[in-house]
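Hi V.,

Quick status before I head out on leave. The structure for the redesign project is tokenized and pasted below; the design run finished overnight.
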């Protein structure tokens, strides 16, 4: 595996005509990331993974500082997965003129709901870094995990508005045996919290089982309560149209429905989602 630290070196390496699949990450790699690498390897001649903890997408400084860094084991996992290239840039490489006065992306409605509402500036930082990474890697296909469902829609919109020539492939969320969605942040949970964390998925699953017969608001309230009894502080549990994340008040089988949750456990923000139909 090539480990490349500058955009210039990357572009020298990737100048051939080979098809390139790209998996952007912030490291602390888990099976979810590896499943994206595997999909890319099946569909492209060259697979590039990036690891870059992007400062501009953290609306909370302590979340940025505590973001897990496990570069040595990440490299091992990438080699094992037969990744062709790891792009590992420095902050200076990605932000050579600093991080003040960064460009503003038109995220529209998506910036007003769910994570857009609760994490101001987050999706602008995501749009900016993914735009920069796509310019650097110039991939044919971009692989994203559906656990970050809203992020997938934001990135698709950025690609459309910037007229970038890349196909977005979204891949299903991978879960531990107890249902907890795989996430880099899980490594920060204490043993006790790790045992409680699957409650998020249990709630999503309970909502899916009951949404056609019980009013959504009622199930939503009981999930918020159950989570609170177990030490979670819930930011949102919302039902939305999976095509555009328009918030829905109740079950409507004529639309594609998704329920999304963001909840804090031991100060660690966990998100998850589940399609309802
Ligand atoms: O999902 C992530 O890990 C990040 O938001 C991404 C897409 C790598 C951009 O920094």
């Amino acid at each position: 595996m090539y480990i490349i630290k500058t955009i210039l070196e990357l572009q020298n390496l990737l100048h051939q005509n080979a098809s390139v699949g790209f998996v952007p990450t912030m490291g602390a790699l888990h099976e979810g990331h590896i499943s994206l690498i595997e999909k890319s390897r099946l569909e492209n001649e060259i697979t590039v993974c990036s690891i870059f903890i992007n400062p501009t997408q953290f609306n909370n400084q302590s979340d940025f500082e505590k973001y897990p860094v496990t570069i040595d084991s990440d490299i091992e996992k990438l080699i094992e997965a037969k990744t062709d290239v790891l792009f590992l840039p420095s902050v200076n490489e990605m932000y050579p003129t600093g991080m003040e006065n960064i460009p503003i992306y038109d995220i529209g409605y998506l910036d007003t709901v769910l994570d857009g509402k609760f994490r101001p500036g987050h999706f602008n930082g995501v749009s900016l870094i993914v735009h920069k990474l796509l310019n650097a890697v110039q991939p044919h296909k971009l692989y994203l995990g559906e656990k970050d469902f809203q992020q997938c829609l934001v990135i698709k919109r950025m690609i459309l508005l910037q007229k970038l020539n890349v196909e977005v492939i979204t891949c299903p969320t991978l879960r531990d045996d107890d249902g907890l969605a795989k996430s880099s942040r899980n490594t920060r949970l204490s043993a006790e919290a790790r045992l409680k964390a699957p409650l998020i998925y249990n709630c999503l699953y309970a909502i899916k089982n009951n949404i056609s017969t019980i009013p959504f608001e009622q199930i939503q309230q009981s999930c918020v309560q159950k989570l609170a009894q177990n030490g979670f502080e819930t930011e949102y549990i919302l039902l939305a149209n999976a095509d555009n994340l328009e918030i829905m008040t109740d079950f409507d089988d004529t639309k594609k429905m998704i329920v999304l949750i963001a909840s804090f456990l031991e100060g660690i923000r966990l998100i998850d989602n589940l399609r309802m139909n």
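Above is the designed sequence. The domain at 184-271 is CATH 3.30.1300.10 (Pantoate--beta-alanine Ligase; Chain: A,domain 2).

G. will cover questions while I'm gone.

Best,
W.
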